[in-house]
Each structure stands twice: as structure tokens, then as C-alpha cells.
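Recap slide: Helix-turn-helix domain-containing protein, sequence and predicted structure.
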Amino acid sequence: MQFCTMLIPCIIELNNEGAGMMFFADFKIERDFVFKEKYGDSESHELHFHDVLEYHILVENEANFQLAHKKYDGTPGDVFLFRPFEPHWNLVKNAKMPIRWISLLLSPSIVRLIPNGYKLLAPFYAVEAISPLIPASSSSAIAIHQLAKMAIEEEKTKAIGWEAKQFLLVIDILVHTLRHASKRDESISSAERFDDGMEVYPSIIQAIEYILEHFTEEIDVNHLLKMAGKRHTAFYRTFRSVTGMTPNMFIHRLRMQAAIYMLVNSDKRITDIAHECGYSSIHYFNKHFKDYRGVSPREYRKSNEKN
């Protein structure tokens, strides 16, 4: 897997323990997904963030899954989801006990090949409604561990069809993740609330799933309001609490991620890519893309052709 990192001038506070630098990691994944065994012994580190989906499947020793404003304790067997654009790093609890984990990086575009595949992305985008930690004691974490180890073994042996086998294992991992999130959602009563007093609304998850499936189309906000059973202001407030973005920001983010994939992995004209991603105006597409990546779509494509 090839990648480069780009430092950005941003300071964040880490749980009142001081300030830390955060940098953007511009991952260029050679395939739609990459499995890799990793080791670490850092007790502190700059946080990074990126626009791909990431699993950390903890295999050995205890870890701290560090986010910008929260830290999760990790024990062997745990599975952790790092969401797109969420600052994070994997740290050790004890420098004398290095951690080992299996990393799975995947492009959101991978689900285009899976029936109703966009529903599988909901756990990565419902930031507040679905916990990023799948505990080792759960059947889903146990299954994901087994699947990840099988994927690593497939790549080591490189037997005939190993890449296709890995793809099937990725689908299984995504399905187990979604089912775990769904079970948790079903176990929450309508009266249960987040720390800030916000209720858990399954209808918001339904709206997220709908957007994930239809983001390249013209989405009628009124349809989302009916789906969620909320008025405009309440819907936008709850949606932002759950995803960290407004519905419009969320749609544009998904479109940009799809555009990046097509710019790097196809020879399609930029105008055609814009239309396929839901933009009828090439000027509007170029503006959003430059806001998103700091360069024009043409410049982005050229820079990736060199790598």
C-alpha cells in the first residue's frame, strides 16, 4: 500500500491532557481494500485522519484507541472502527508491551459491487449513534478476528483466487459490523440518551442509509424529513449530532469520495465523473472538489498518475 502524508496547521486538545498536532494522511490504496499486520509501541503520537474506512483488529496486548476528544481502552480481541475524517491513533498502554493488530483499510467505493452495499457503511458514518468499539466478548468481534486472520493468511500463501477470497472476507466483516450495530440499536430503548441529552433515533440511521444508497441522485430533503418523522430544524440538529455533518455536507462528502476513486481508477472524462457523482454543473463540481482536496480534479488526477 502506497501513501503519503500532508501536514496541516491544526492543533487539537486531547482530553485536557495538552495539545497535539494532527495531520492528514492521504492514503492511496492500490486496491479497494488492504489487510496488513501491524505493530506499535508508542505511548503518544500525533493524530492523523484520512478519508478511507479503517478497522483495527487488536491481536496482542492492551491498547488505547485515541480519538481527538475521547480515548477507548482496548483489550486483545477488540475491534475498533476509525471513521473517515476522524483524528485517531493506536497507542500502547505499556511501552514494554507492544501491541499487534490487523489493519483493514477500505475505500467506501468498494460497496458499489455489493447488493444494497451502501447500507453496510452506516456504522462508519453514524458517529454518535453507533459505538466504534466492538468488544472482544461479542460474537461479531470473534467472527471478525477469524475473518481478518484468514485474509492475512490468504495474502501470505497467494493461492489461486486469493484476492477474490479476501474480497468475500471483507464483505463478511462489513456484514458482522452492521449486524452488531443493529443489535445494539435494538437493545436501546427510546428513552435512552447520549451524554449530551440527545435521544437515539433509529429513523436517523434509516435516513443515513438512504443517503448512502442514493447520494449520486437528487435527494429530496422533505423525503428525509418524512422518513425521520421530524421537522426541518430538529432533523438537521439530530442529523448533525449523529454524523458530525449537515445532510448537505454529508452528501457532498460521499460524492467527493466517489469522485476521488473514479479519478484515480478510471479513464473517464472529468465531466462524466461529475455527472455520475450527482453534479449537473462541472463548475459546481470543481468548486466542491477544490474545497475538499485543495486542488482541482484535473490536478488531483495528474498528481496520482505520477505515483
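Residues 162-187 form the longest helix (26 residues).
The longest strand covers residues 2-13.
(End of recap.)
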